[in-house]
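Researcher: I need the complex structure. Ligand is nicotinamide-adenine-dinucleotide. Inputs:
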Amino acid sequence: MLPDEVVTLYRRAKRVAAFTGAGISEESGIPTFRGDSGLWVKYPPEKFASVTGLLRMFITQPDRVVDFAIDFYRMPLMAEPNPAHYALAEMERTGKLIAVITQNVDNLHQRAGSKNVLELHGNMYRLRCMRCGKHRYMAKDEIEGMLNRLQQAKGSRIRILRVVTGIFKRCECGGRYRVDMVFFGEPLPQDVLFEAERIVQEVDLLFVIGTSGVVYPAASLPYIAKDAGTKIIEINPVASAVTQIADHFLQGKAGEILPKFLHV
Ligand code: NAD
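Model: Output:
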């Protein structure tokens, strides 16, 4: 059961947005990076989360970079949207929710049916031409094929490099593609960030779901919302950096709590 004040707040809100983090996809089988089984335990972010770190690792330990790529894509490739993703998509369909602002790169909001998804950190299935900015989505089969080829190329830096240059082919403009994700040390897409800032100030209610609230500048969004008078409902099994400013903290899993809002 949702607390009465939460039900009233949600019913009265005319425009709602959601700010989501890795936790919303945890019930889809994608571990959060920081959790005990998270990626950062096996692959320290100072080595694997930045472009320069990855290049350095590639020079010294290319097989580790291959292992990282395989582990990074493995769980998301198998994952399906969960009831939390579907609940947000349904809220949008009924006209209550105007946007999902996500830090996730796993494409699960879109696969659940959400239309207005602002991706602050990019998308792991998308490539971007570094010269003209053109986008290209990679199909699941294409990524699986690429990971298989990388696995077979292990043991030879040249062979790995050949597979990599095969993936990041040249665009029609002559520029080279890269994965369209924001690595540590890179700026967020400014247009997406500005739009997210505008939305959190404009809505009456912001759901903050499954984020530890420590990755900046994305983590500033709940504070910007609060300053603008937007009410905040946080959903997380444990308290986060956002909890202190949340109007309501609903402790628990997103996939169990969010669908309840569809029946109030
Ligand atoms: P985080 O790992 O820092 O925090 C995850 C939060 O989710 C924690 O507070 C945790 O308590 C909570 N959580 C765990 N299970 C939950 C559940 N079932 N329901 C609700 N909450 C749950 O994640 P972050 O704040 O998003 O920051 C990590 C960065 O890593 C982000 O920038 C994100 O882009 C990236 N990331 C993305 C994915 C993905 O795309 N699925 C996965 C891991 C990390």
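Model: Summary of the prediction. The two ends are 10 Å apart (CA to CA).
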